[in-house]
């Protein structure tokens, strides 16, 4: 039976930190669903469709990645695609408390789905989509933070 994992996030926009987690997760699982959250508590720069398109572009060389979106409970989505695992990236200790709460709740909702935490590469430990957007807004150099397609999309947004 194939191992299937779900890697959720807002990805607004996707960064090299996200890609680090995705590429490493794709080596462990047979199929990896990158799932764009439509988080009602955030005001995204990119639409869900734009985020999906950017993720598809920058992951096109990872054959076992599928890009999708969802609204609702992550464990329901995972069950619908046959996933038995959720992958979450951690940048720093400060991420852990929030992630532990989410993981504990997911476990209450469906104890058959395991969560795996992957520590991001140290060179990306400071990186967040919010920081990238802030630097891009003021025309700062983000070429080492995001792929070219994302850099171009951000430049277009802030014109």
Automatic annotation (TrEMBL):
The record marks 18 as: Transition state stabilizer. Its main location: cytoplasm. Substrate binds at residues 10, 42, 74, 88. Pathway: Cofactor biosynthesis; coenzyme A biosynthesis; CoA from (R)-pantothenate: step 4/5. SUPFAM superfamilies: Nucleotidylyl transferase (SSF52374). Its cofactor is Mg(2+). Homohexamer. Reversibly transfers an adenylyl group from ATP to 4'-phosphopantetheine, yielding dephospho-CoA (dPCoA) and pyrophosphate. This is Phosphopantetheine adenylyltransferase. The lineage of its organism: Bacteria, Bacillati, Bacillota, Bacilli, Bacillales.
């Amino acid at each position: 039976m194939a191992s299937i994992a779900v890697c959720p996030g807002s990805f607004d926009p996707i960064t090299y930190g996200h890609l680090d987690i995705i590429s490493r997760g794709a080596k462990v699982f047979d199929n990896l669903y990158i799932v764009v959250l439509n988080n009602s508590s955030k005001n995204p720069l990119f639409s869900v469709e734009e985020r999906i398109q950017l993720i598809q572009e920058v992951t096109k060389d990872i054959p076992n990645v599928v890009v999708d979106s969802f609204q609702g409970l992550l464990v329901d989505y995972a069950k619908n695609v046959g996933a038995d695992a959720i992958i979450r990236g951690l940048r720093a200790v400060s991420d852990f408390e929030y992630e532990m709460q989410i993981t504990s709740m997911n476990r209450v909702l469906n104890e058959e789905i395991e969560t795996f935490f992957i520590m991001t590469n140290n060179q990306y430990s400071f990186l967040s989509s919010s920081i990238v957007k802030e630097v891009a807004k003021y025309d700062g150099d983000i070429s080492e933070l995001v792929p070219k397609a994302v850099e171009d999309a951000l430049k277009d947004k802030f014109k």
